[in-house]
Design goal:
Radius of gyration: 21 Å
Number of helices: 3
Signal peptide: 1-27
GO molecular function, one term: growth factor activity
Family: Belongs to the heparin-binding growth factors family.
Protein name: Fibroblast growth factor 17
Keywords: Signal
Length: 220
């Protein structure tokens, strides 16, 4: 009887250790600061943001306090989107609608990053495969059942920004740089987003269709 109790105790301990190993999340954080993401939606042509407990895709890239997100990735490759200012998590609710929560341990708050053939990022729910995060032209939540009809509303471009520890708790609007009108006009943000996407696609093509792919070798 004592042997069975001892084996049961060991089994429970092993299960608890395994569970903590899976749930344990590593944030993209360094000792000198942390890396934050901004997500640009290609249907609303604006950034994902949260404001007063609401979430939409009408944000400006200059409003860092509203559009910055910390990204936490666990050992299974699932990620969490935590708003950098409010520390609330982006989640799906039971009705498969997007919301924000103070605690993000629920499986509905975990996502998987997908890269499609066009070079855009798609954010899929880890809770239910095939459930993607999207927003319409007005920046409002897009019904996930329209994924195949309105695919563009589920396209994202991700940009990363490193924030040093000295600026982590600052919440001020990013100032626009004054340009000298006598100089050549600087490219727009969309130009840089498209350039980054093209570079990513070139890497994919070099890997999949390039001359160094073993599938492309011809036998003599």
């Amino acid at each position: 009887m004592s042997i069975r109790l001892e084996s049961t105790t060991k089994l429970k301990l092993l299960c608890s250790l395994l569970l903590s190993f899976i749930i344990n999340v590593d944030c993209l954080t360094m000792s000198t600061g942390e890396t934050r993401w901004q997500l640009f939606n290609h249907c609303s042509n604006a950034m994902l943001q949260t404001y007063l407990g609401n979430i939409n895709a009408r944000g400006s890239s200059l409003r860092l306090c509203l559009t910055d997100f910390n990204v936490k990735v666990n050992r299974l490759g699932m990620l969490q989107l935590q708003h950098a200012q409010s520390r609330k998590y982006v989640c799906f609710n039971r009705r498969k609608r997007v919301t924000v929560r103070i605690e993000g341990d629920n499986i509905r708050c975990f996502f998987i990053e997908r890269l499609n053939e066009q070079g855009y990022t798609e954010i899929e729910s880890a809770w239910e495969p095939g459930l993607f995060l999207g927003f319409n032209k007005r920046g409002r939540f897009q019904d996930p059942t329209t994924y195949h009809k309105k695919r563009k509303c589920f396209y994202w471009t991700k940009s990363e920004r490193f924030v040093p520890n000295s600026e982590l708790h600052r919440c001020a609007r990013q100032q626009k740089k004054k340009l000298n009108h006598n100089l050549t006009t600087m490219p727009s943000e969309s130009f840089y987003r498209n350039m980054a996407r093209e570079q990513l696609l070139q890497r994919i093509r070099a890997t999949e269709d390039g001359p160094y792919n073993i599938k492309n070798f011809t036998t003599l």
